[in-house]
Amino acid sequence: MKQWTRWEDWVAIAAGLAVALSTLFLAPMGASVAIMVTLGVLLVISGVVNLAFPGMVAMEYVQGALGLLLIISPWVGGYVDTTTFGAAWMSWICGAIAVVVAALAVRPSMKAHHDAITH
Q: Is the pLDDT of residue 119 over 60?
């Protein structure tokens, strides 16, 4: 598998950018800004690492874990507001996207890793 070509990692990067940059436009609640910026930047970093090294299977799991952290962060950070589209909804949506694309990327990453090992 070639570097910088996997669409799953580009989607994860976009989700990370969206969640991190959304703090500029959404009303802050609780610890939403700190959590969303931190997890968003970490999601972008994991996506770039996955693009640069497509055979690193562990990074796919890291990406999925960051997505799960985004999903639970509104309850942990105290910014659950289901009445309006705000920080909680952005965390849930981008977290779910990160989990789905990480799950879709595990098998291709395993194949790339397997192909890179010399027999």
A: no
